[in-house]
Request: fold
Amino acid sequence: MMEFTDHTGMCRYLICVILSGLPLFAASFPEADISNGVVHAKILLPDPDHGYYRGTRFDWAGVIESLTYASHDFFGKWFEHYDPHLHDAIMGPVEEFRSEDGALGYAEAKPGGTFVKIGVGVLRKPDDRPYVFARTYELIGTGKRVVRPGRDRVEFVQTLSDGEGYAYEYRKTVRLAPGKPELILEHTLKNTGKRVIETSVYDHDFYVIDGQPTGPDFVVKFAFAPHATDSFQGLAEIRGNDLVYLKELQPRRSVAGYLEGFSDKPADNDIRVENTKVRAGVRETGDRPISKFYFWSIRTTVCPEAYIHMRIEPHKQFKWGIKYDFYTLK
Reply:
């Protein structure tokens, strides 16, 4: 178990006990290797001083450097420049919590005041500009984190209070299903403060299937018939329930935009990303209804982003899960 606490605004960590013999400090970043005999994954663990990702956009828990099944790779490095504080220098099916004004308490905070980014910590608002997800904000405190690695899973717990009414306990487990090519993300967010927590969360995914360039070999399949609200500029189009690419994306070109057409039923939270050249795919299913859908892809990664919304009264909690089924195409 790895535990670190932050009581004074200074980020400090303490390694309490290391269980299961996992190589938590291989290379230069805390990490854990997990396997169920079918799927193998490397998880990069949160750490305020030495963690691979120390940005202020995405949840620090559950960063996956690599995941392999049947000799195929599904996640990996998709960006050119690495900086631990860069907002998107991150890999795997990572999640961002985003409130209406960007983060909890951001709009009402005065310059110099604080706001909360769930999964990250308490941040300082530097000026009166609107929240920008790509901006790196000063990290005031990360609360208390506990990390419990196991043979086929890693459990993460973050407890945090901003001292002004926002407080929560956030539990996340990244685990592999026994004997199956499945990755499961389980979440519980409990409101332990005095203020209502209202936010949305989405999984950015960052699929990198065998390092293949995004283009006609890729297809994205939806459980609903999507309607794009933005132009794909002749690079892709919607055909029935599928998004298909017409050209291979070149550097600095993207296919991105909001999609509509989903219902208020969880069954629509069902997406497949397949590559017909290497004949590998992944099916992503969520157990909550989609509240908003954004799709983003560049040459090196394909990212369907299904948002879910939650409103949590004090002393209540919200649970949700996402499952990834990896497969090969016949």
In short: The mean pLDDT is 93. The chain has two domains: 2-203, 218-299. Residues 35 and 120 are 27 Å apart (CA to CA).
